[in-house]
Amino acid sequence: MPHKAFAWFILPSALAMILFIALPLVSIVVQSLYIEHPQVLTQVESCSPFGGCTMETRVDAAATAALRDAQPLGRFNGLGTYFNRSHLATREIATILKDTDGIADSLRRIYQLPFYRALLFTLCYTAVVTPLGMLAGFWIALAVNRIPAVLKGPVIFVSLLPMIITPLIGSLVIYWMVNSRGILGNLLQWVTQDPTLSIAASGPLTWLTLFLYGIWIAAPFSFVVFYAGLQTVPQDTLESAMIDGANRWERVRFVIIPHLVPLATFVALVQLMDNFRVLEPIIGFNAQASATSLSFSIYNDLQAENGQLFASAAATSLLTIALLIVLLFPVLIRTWRDFSRKSAH
Amino acid sequence: MTSSPARPNYTLTLIATAFVLFWMVVAGFPFLWTTWGSFKVEADFFSRADWSNALSGVNTIRQTGDAFTMDGYKGAWILNDFWRAGLNTMLVTVVVTVLSLVLGTLGGYALARSGYRYAFWILILALVFRAMPHITLVSGYLVPFFQLNIWGTLPTAIIVLVAINQPFTLWMLHSFFLSIPKDLDESAMVDGCTRFQAFREVIVPVMWPGIITTGLFSFLLAYNDFAVTAMLLRQENQTMIPKIASFLGSIESEGNVMFAVSSVVSATVPLFILVMFFQRQIVGGLTAGAVKG
Amino acid sequence: MADIKLKGITRRWNDFIGVDNLNLDIADREFLVLLGPSGCGKSTTMRMIAGLEEVSSGEIWLGERMVNNLEPKDRDISMVFQSYGLYPTMSVYENIRFPLRIRKVPASEHKERVLRAAEMVELTQFLDRRPAALSGGQRQRVALARAIVRAPNAFLMDEPLSNLDAKLRVSTRAQIANLHHELKTTTVYVTHDQVEAMTLADRVVVMKNGIAQQIAPPMDIYNKPANTFVASFIGAPAMNLIEGHLEAGTFTSPVLTVSGLPHRHSGPVTLGFRAEDVAVVSEGGNLAAPVYSVERLGDSTMFAIRAKDDLISLKADKAASLAIGDVVRAAVTAKVSHIFDGTTGQRIEPLLIPA
């Protein structure tokens, strides 16, 4: 397609993406370099009839508002926000590393820092849910492939539900069940014979619940893709493997799995992106006391009760995006290699 | 000697069936349970005493005189204006889907038909955009939107959702267009069409299945969004999902959790219907993306 | 109706050259075939004429117009694609009518013209069907009808027969030849099949690596191939090529010696001869080697003999008794020999026509 025609066709889409994805990124960069104005304080002499006069410090609301209107971005702060306690916390980490009681102690103290807390949970969630979700989906696909044909339709129907459900709704549905007053929470108390057991009160249990929830919503996607992949396994290869004497497991190992590998890369990529942005489950499970994610930190800054913390949210956003690009780098490199090879004739 | 397809291994089939049944319970039961529970009072669905109250509805009968009650739905839809959120959701999702498809088919077609290197780079950039958590972008919208005084309105949220969904829509439609032979546009152009006429008269009619499938996913993305709608809409413009989120703080403390439960069930219904009618297209869409990679 | 002139057209992609400085004058009403192996630039050339491919340099003239910058629709040509490019959502009738509709031909003429085109390719009874309900040959004819429904400057056909089975290919080939005779429209036809080229063409352009190797009528190409590539590409079986040395009119190689060649050239050369030009002899002859394979074709027998490293194809009559391993003798005369330069592969013309 000639350049000119291409430009006209892509224009609306490109314009939308430039205005609402690329420019906001610029806006984030700028915001992260500024910090909210402090409140303007004034000295007021207050005199009481009996106690005489004292000087009092008060917030000058009008002046604060005027200043915020004049410079909505706040004052320039350079990279200050990135290194403060809520983000990379370089000074705090230096202190921790200086007077440490061993690695475990320093890790525990670093984990108290909000950014690292969110980072750790996000990475753990992504690292646990992505492979386990895929594995669960793979087994379901293998199993569904074997069951009588009449069952397949309903199974696929039910399987799609956790995937297409709104994440916030899905997490609420599960949360209400595992709640200490819900049916699964009750079951857990009965199993452990501990009537005070509550998932919300226990950090590790909250993490575990969030992971299980993540697998629950991730498995169907892998299942559908792998199931479709199983339908296209080349029958010739499968049959020649049988004639060559491969048993059932060897056929899975040498024919089916290699056939599914390209699909698995695709699924892994999509799941990685989706799991990395985990936000709604933490809100749905009301779990911020024991688990926060990077997305949740940003959400929390923007929801802050007394004034939204734009600078803080922007800094976390940029750190998140930077991390994401690092994670995606192998994929980008691989895609580039594929493309170069293809266009090399 | 292992069994061939002609002589099935019944033990294995039995294990597989059992496993699949277990998965169906895991996948489906939570929805069934919550739907059932939404017709009870809080004391039954969240029972401190005995979980089986939720089945028998002891407290529901005591409080309302019947084993099933619509109180939760009444509270959410009428008392708390959930109907307004429902209307907003309908408006937002329909407009977002249509606009996403219009922009996406044009762009996806261009990307599929251009052999130049920049088309590849646009796709890679779209992949990176697709990977970015939506909330990171939202943090970039707020300040400019406050300044331009466009924060909080439905059109703003719609345009943002369209833009945010573009990377995904472009990828998906691009791979559908790739499966349509180039010969078709070329014979149309030789027959006397301009590029755009060829696109409209010949390619789009062939593309309908792909457009419908992509439309389903655009719909899901808009319907399921939380980050954008929660942060960009003011209270009276809220769609269902942020409305439910705001219920969590306010209503739960008032002891009306059942309003939240019933609104959650209400918001599931459209998705349920969608899967029922478009199961084939959804599965096809997921697979198409995977096969083209 | 128009003539087509290609003036030094070149198509480049980065550092890959698809078509290299091609000059070609196609006369009005001529049937020109672009022939060559895949990747030789023949389709690219046709697509540049159609306007589907950009021209990197050079000029394309359709009649009196330089069309380099014209959109395909403004060039007034019609084209038959290898995979036909039928519109799957339209009926056969709508498919054939499409060019008329899009070019704003008065609606009153549509029906008559579509029916006439359909009749010419014997499609009248399928007009209501969708392309998906047609066989390969019928689809091919829909594509033909769509091309002939209006009277364009030229027809372009991109391997139109390659998706048909062997039998259908022969009958459709005849149909195309007949259509051209009837409509007398300039036609450019791309194929990799030398039989199609020989049977259909007024002139053939043999291409390789983006360069035209020879532009000539079919029989000239058969009788006087311009180089070893053309010699090996035209004719079935391919011309036998034997490397050797030419000195004072005598060709010598380890397997064959031919003397009395009317060429004033000395040095390394390649000698070529066609299987059908050489007689198998029982005594004498200048070529003797054991039989490697035998193919009985019914009307004749093709067989190959193995002489040192070369497999040489020969032709015998249908009754010939040949068995693998038998030693066969043949006489390759100076009269049937073609001489090509040993390094460039270019044909070396004899000084005088051998008697």
UniProtKB/TrEMBL annotation, chain A:
Task: Kindly report the protein's main subcellular placement as a broad class.
Answer: membrane
Q: Where in the cell is it found?
A: Cell membrane
A Gene Ontology term for the protein's cellular component: plasma membrane
Q: Which GO terms describe its biological process?
A: transmembrane transport
Q: Which domain of life is it from?
A: Bacteria
Q: Which Pfam families match?
A: BPD_transp_1
Q: What membrane topology was assigned to this protein in its record? A: Multi-pass membrane protein
Q: Which residues form the ABC transmembrane type-1 domain?
A: 119-331
Which chain regions cross the lipid bilayer?
7-30, 115-143, 155-178, 210-230, 251-272, 309-333
Q: Which SUPFAM superfamilies match?
A: MetI-like
Q: Give the UniProt keywords, A-Z.
A: Cell membrane, Membrane, Transmembrane, Transmembrane helix, Transport
Q: Which family does it belong to?
A: Belongs to the binding-protein-dependent transport system permease family.
* PANTHER family to which the protein is assigned, alphabetical: BLR7065 PROTEIN (PTHR43005), SPERMIDINE_PUTRESCINE TRANSPORT SYSTEM PERMEASE PROTEIN (PTHR43005:SF1)
Name of this protein? Inner membrane ABC transporter permease protein YcjO
Q: Which gene encodes it?
A: ycjO_1
From TrEMBL, chain B:
| Record localization | Cell membrane
Question: InterPro entries annotated for this entry?
Answer: BP-dep_ABC_trans_perm, MetI-like, MetI-like_sf
Residues crossing the lipid bilayer are 12-33, 90-111, 118-142, 154-181, 202-223, 257-278
For whether the record's keyword set contains Transport, the answer is yes
Q: Name one GO cellular component term.
A: plasma membrane
Primary place of residence? membrane
The UniProt record lists the ABC transmembrane type-1 domain at: 86-276
The topology of this chain with respect to the membrane is:
Multi-pass membrane protein
Q: Which family does it belong to?
A: Belongs to the binding-protein-dependent transport system permease family.
Under the heading PANTHER family, the entry gives:
INNER MEMBRANE ABC TRANSPORTER PERMEASE PROTEIN YCJP (PTHR32243:SF18), MALTOSE TRANSPORT SYSTEM PERMEASE-RELATED (PTHR32243)
> What is the protein name for this chain?
Trehalose transport system permease protein SugB
Q: Which organism is it from?
A: Aquimixticola soesokkakensis
From TrEMBL, chain C:
- For whether the record's keyword set contains Translocase, the answer is yes
Instruction: Please name the gene that encodes this protein.
Output: ugpC_5
Q: Lineage of the native species?
A: Bacteria, Pseudomonadati, Pseudomonadota, Alphaproteobacteria, Rhodobacterales
Give the matching NCBIfam families. PRK11650.1
Q: Which GO terms describe its cellular component?
A: ATP-binding cassette (ABC) transporter complex, substrate-binding subunit-containing
EC class name? hydrolase
PANTHER family attached to this UniProt entry: MALTODEXTRIN IMPORT ATP-BINDING PROTEIN MSMX, TREHALOSE IMPORT ATP-BINDING PROTEIN SUGC
Question: What family is it from?
Answer: Belongs to the ABC transporter superfamily.
| UniProt-recorded name of the protein | sn-glycerol-3-phosphate import ATP-binding protein UgpC
Where does the ABC transporter domain start and stop, copy by copy? 4-234
What Gene Ontology molecular-function terms does this entry list?
A: ABC-type transporter activity; ATP binding; ATP hydrolysis activity
Q: Which SMART domains match?
A: AAA
Among the GO biological process terms of this entry, one is: carbohydrate transport
What organism, scientifically named, is this protein from?
Aquimixticola soesokkakensis
Xref: InterPro entries: AAA+_ATPase (IPR003593), ABC_transporter-like_ATP-bd (IPR003439), ABC_transporter-like_CS (IPR017871), ABC_transpr_MalK-like (IPR015855), ABC_transpr_MalK/UgpC-like (IPR047641), Mo/tungstate-bd_C_term_dom (IPR008995), NA-bd_OB-fold (IPR012340), P-loop_NTPase (IPR027417)
- Which Enzyme Commission numbers does its entry carry? 3.6.3.20
